[in-house]
Design brief:
about 45% helix, Gyrase A, domain 2, six-stranded mixed beta sheet, Four Helix Bundle (Hemerythrin (Met), subunit A), 3 domains, alpha/beta, 14 helices, disordered N terminus, Rossmann fold, flat
C-alpha cells in the first residue's frame, strides 16, 4: 500500500535517552536532504548515497554544535521509502538535543512515536505484521522472543495470512461466478472441491489461532507460580533461579505470608516468577490464611506451576493437576540431598537440591520442553499471533465457518458470498490490506520516538 501525498519532513533522536559514545539523529521526508544540507553547510546534497561523510553541524550564529558522520539514503531505497538522512554524533544528551533543535529550526517537524516505521508501512516497505515485528524486536527480552520477532519482521505471518486471503479470494470468485449465471447450478463435484478448499483455509486459521498463548508468553513472559506446602523450599528455589537472596528462607512454617514477584530468563524464556505462601489446611493466622487464598488464586491463572515437594517426605495421595487447558504443571522434588522417600521412586519429576544447587539445569530443560516443545527444532516456525491478530483471525474464522455450514446446507450463494467477503476483509486487516486509521493509530502509538 503506497500513499503518495505531501507530508512534513520528520526528525527525532533514534538512540536511547542516555549518555553513550554515539547518538543518531534521523531525518525523513521530502525535504530531508534540504534540512541536512542547511545543518551541515551544504554537504548533504553532494554526499554520495550510503557513504558516511564527516560534517560539522553549526547553529544559526555559526557556533559548532558537533562533528558528525552524515549518511544519506535516497528514497525509495531507505527504511521509510522516503529520503532519509542520519547524523551520527557524540552521544551526550545535550549534544543530541542541540542537533535535534537545529534540525527543527531548519524545517523539520518532531516525529511522533513509531512515525518512521509508520511511513515505511504507508510506502509499502513493510506490511502491518512486519511493522509490529519491529516493535517486538525492540522489546524482546529472551532468545525465543527475539527469534519470533525476527520471523515476524521477515514477513512470515503476513505471508501465511496473505496466502489464506488469496485462496479465499479464489473461492469467492467461483461462488460469485455462479451467482452471475444462476442457470448454472453448482455440481456436486465442484461443491465438494469448494468445501474442501474452504475447510483447508479454516484449518490454517485455526493453526494460527493456536499460537495466541505462545505469542502472549513470548511477548509478556510466562506467569509462573512456585507452589507447595510450607518448608518445601519455595523461597530457596526462587533465590536460586534469580541468582541472589530475594526471599527470606527459614525453617519456620508460614514465613512467606504474601506473594513475591520477580522476572528471570530461564532457557530463553522470560518467567514472571511468583513465590507463594505455603499451602496447608490448618492455620490460625489470619494473615497467613489470606496469603494461602491469594496463592490459590494465582495458581489457578498461571501458565506454569512449579509444584514443589519435599523428596524426603512421604508422597501425598493426590498430586497437583493443571487448572486449565493451557496450564503446565511441573513436579519438582526438592531436598534430594536428604534422601528420597521410597514412595517417590517411580514418580517422574525433576529432582533437585536448592541447598546444594543441583538439578537446576534439568529444571531449565524441563521448563523449556514443556512450554516450547514444538519450537525446539531450529527449523520450526516460531510465528506467534498477538491480541490484534487473534481478533482478526477469530472474526475471519467465524464467518468462514458460517459459510461452510451454509454451503453444506445448500443455502443461497449470495449469503455465502457475503460471509466469505467478511472473512477476507478480516484477514486483510492483519497485514493492513484495508485502510483502518484507528488501528494504525493504536499500533504505532506503542513505538518509541525515533523508530
Amino acid at each position: 500500500m503506497t500513499h503518495s501525498f505531501a507530508r512534513p519532513t520528520i526528525a527525532a533522536i533514534a538512540t536511547a535517552a542516555a549518555p553513550a559514545a554515539v547518538g543518531i539523529l534521523r531525518i525523513s521526508g521530502p525535504a530531508a536532504v534540504a534540512v541536512a544540507d542547511a545543518m551541515t553547510g551544504g554537504k548533504a546534497n553532494s554526499a554520495t548515497e550510503r557513504q558516511a561523510r564527516l560534517c560539522r553541524v553549526s547553529d544559526a550564529q555559526g557556533n559548532i554544535i558537533d562533528e558528525t558522520l552524515l549518511t544519506v539514503f535516497r528514497g525509495p531505497r531507505s527504511y521509510t521509502g522516503e529520503d532519509v538522512c542520519e547524523l551520527a554524533g557524540h552521544g551526550g544528551m545535550l549534544v543530541m538535543r542541540a542537533l535535534l533543535d537545529r534540525a527543527l529550526a531548519c524545517g523539520a517537524t518532531l516525529a511522533g512515536p513509531g512515525e518512521f516505521t509508520q511511513q515505511a508501512f504507508l510506502h509499502g516497505k513493510l506490511d502491518l505484521t512486519q511493522a509490529e515485528g519491529v516493535m517486538d524486536l525492540i522489546s524482546a527480552q529472551t532468545h525465543y522472543a527475539l527469534r519470533a520477532a525476527h520471523e515476524q519482521r521477515e514477513g512470515k505471518l503476513g505471508q501465511q495470512t496473505e496466502k489464506a486471503r488469496n485462496d479465499l479470494l479464489e473461492c469467492i470468485a467461483h461462488v460469485e461466478a455462479y451467482i452471475d449465471f444462476p442457470e448454472e447450478d453448482i455440481s456436486p463435484e465442484v461443491g465438494h472441491a469448494l468445501h474442501a478448499k474452504l475447510e483447508t483455509i479454516a484449518t490454517t486459521l485455526r493453526q494460527l489461532l493456536a499460537t495466541a498463548d505462545r505469542g502472549r508468553i513470548l511477548r509478556e513472559g510466562v506467569r509462573t507460580v512456585i507452589y507447595g506446602a510450607p518448608n518445601t523450599g519455595k523461597s530457596s528455589l526462587l533465590n536460586r533461579l534469580l541468582g541472589y537472596e530475594r526471599a527470606i528462607v527459614s525453617q519456620i512454617a508460614g514465613t512467606t505470608r504474601d506473594s513475591i514477584e520477580e522476572s528471570v530468563n530461564v532457557g530463553g524464556l522470560l518467567l514472571r516468577l511468583t513465590d507463594t505462601a505455603g499451602m496447608r489446611d490448618v492455620t490460625d493466622d489470619v494473615i497467613e490464611k489470606e496469603g494461602i487464598r491469594r496463592s490459590e488464586t494465582l495458581r489457578q491463572s498461571a501458565d506454569l506451576v512449579l509444584a514443589l515437594f519435599d523428596a524426603s517426605s512421604e508422597k501425598p495421595g493426590v498430586l497437583l493437576t493443571p487448572a486449565h487447558d493451557h496450564q503446565h504443571v511441573l513436579l519438582l522434588l526438592n531436598k534430594i540431598d536428604c534422601g528420597e522417600h521410597s514412595s517417590w521412586h517411580d514418580t517422574a519429576a525433576v529432582r533437585l537440591s536448592c541447598l546444594q544447587g543441583t538439578g537446576l539445569q534439568e529444571l531449565e530443560h524441563a521448563i523449556t520442553a514443556a512450554l516450547m516443545a514444538q519450537a525446539l527444532d531450529d527449523g520450526h516456525s516460531l510465528v506467534s499471533i498477538n491480541a490484534r491478530h487473534q481478533d482478526c483471525l477469530r472474526r475471519a474464522l467465524d464467518s468462514l465457518e458460517v459459510a461452510l455450514a451454509q454451503l453444506q446446507a445448500g443455502e443461497d450463494l449470495t449469503l455465502i458470498s457475503i460471509e466469505l467477503r467478511t472473512a477476507m476483509d478480516a484477514l486483510g486487516e492483519i497485514a493492513g490490506k484495508i485502510d483502518a486509521d484507528d488501528i494504525l493509530g493504536v499500533i504505532f502509538s506503542r513505538f518509541c520516538i525515533g523508530k
